[in-house]
Amino acid sequence: MKAWVYGEYGGVDVLKFDENVSVPEVKEDQVLIKVVAAALNPVDAKRRQGKFKATDSPLPTVPGYDVAGVVVKVGSQVKEFKEGDEVYGDVNEKALDGPKQFGSLAEYTAVEEKLLALKPKNLDFVQAASLPLAIETAYEGLERTGFSAGKSILVLNGSGGVGSLVIQLAKQVFGASKVVATSGTRNLELLKILGADLAIDYTKENFEDLPEKFDVVYDAIGQCDKAVKVVNEGGAVVVLTGAVTPPGFRFVVTSNGAVLKKLNPYLESGKVKPVIDPKGPFPFSQVAEAFSYIETNRASGKYCSYRLIFGNRFPSLVLSIAKHCIISKVDRGISVFFFFFFFIERVLA
Q1: Which of 59, 155, 184, 259 sits most deeply, having the most CB atoms within 10 A of its CB?
Q2: How many CA atoms lie within 13 A of 260 on its CB side?
Q3: Using CA atoms, how far apart are residues 298 and 295, in angstroms rounded to an integer?
Q4: What distance in Å separates the CA atoms of residue 133 and residue 7, rounded to the nearest whole number?
């Protein structure tokens, strides 16, 4: 099969396009997915750089965590899925502890049944591929704080990949009494569309000067030292990046298809939507360029949350996306995750 591979840790130059990679074997509890769309996250770059090579799988590596595609083969112990099912998920149960040698940036990938869910009926493969790692991170962080109906939350970097989903989940799934979120000037309206009761422009206001405190602060930008100043006594601060100041805590998400299944009704009803930014496309042939783009932004201390689509090649798909998601110009300065989508099935055909 065709795939992107690296046989040593290093810069983007270690990435190679290989047309003769073996299709991964399917274990009893796995399904083989024909990849239609995949998402590239900063963790892919860190892994390629060898940031956690002590717990990585053996080289060579096919990168990629998020995936959406079609089941073409099922293991003997698989009960929930069958050939032809459209599924999505994060292929690695633990992001940093033994991630798969064969990820999603390939024509096929083998994934455990427990990590997957049926693709929401109203979402296309691109939208579905954008969700797993980000939405599972958003959900698990909220659960770890004991967040529940009637509680208040402040989301730092509310227009980012995770933050945009935290706002929606807090409001639509957990029943938050009040959601306040920060972003740059041009994304304030987006925060309101997502469900924020109050949108704060971080370029003009300091959230730590707010007259109120919150039950939970979800820090998706790296300002824990300030976040702890606005949390209620006995409250919690979730930290995704940067230094941790008590009572803040950091966690590494555990991929779980059950979470996706639980959230599918909210996605299918439109209560929770992917946030898509139609920035210029990165074809599958330019995965190395996509990595470079991520790392340029990361080097400046800023992460982007662009969901890139092949709009110029698939106009009908763009129309369907517009009906089921929020299309937004995401502020580079305050975003968390950077997603690229590759229509592998069509591009590599």
Answers
A1: 155
A2: 27
A3: 5
A4: 25
**Short-list 160, 173, 170, CA closest to 133:** 160
Q: Tokens representing 181? A: 């979120």
- Cα first-last separation, the chain: 11
d(CA 177, CA 171): 8
CB 37 within 8 A of CB 129: yes
In the chain, what is the greatest distance between 2 CA atoms, to the nearest angstrom?
A: 61
The whole-model pTM stands at: 0.86
What lies within 8 Å, CB to CB, of 306 at 6+ separation is: 277, 279, 330, 338, 339, 340
Give the model's pLDDT for residue 246. Answer: 94
pLDDT in tens, 207-217: 999 999 999 99
CA distances from 282 to 14, 211, 231, 311, 347 (A): 19, 44, 40, 11, 11
Give every CB contact of residue 103 below 8 A, 6+ residues apart in sequence.
44, 61, 62, 63, 64, 65, 91, 92, 109
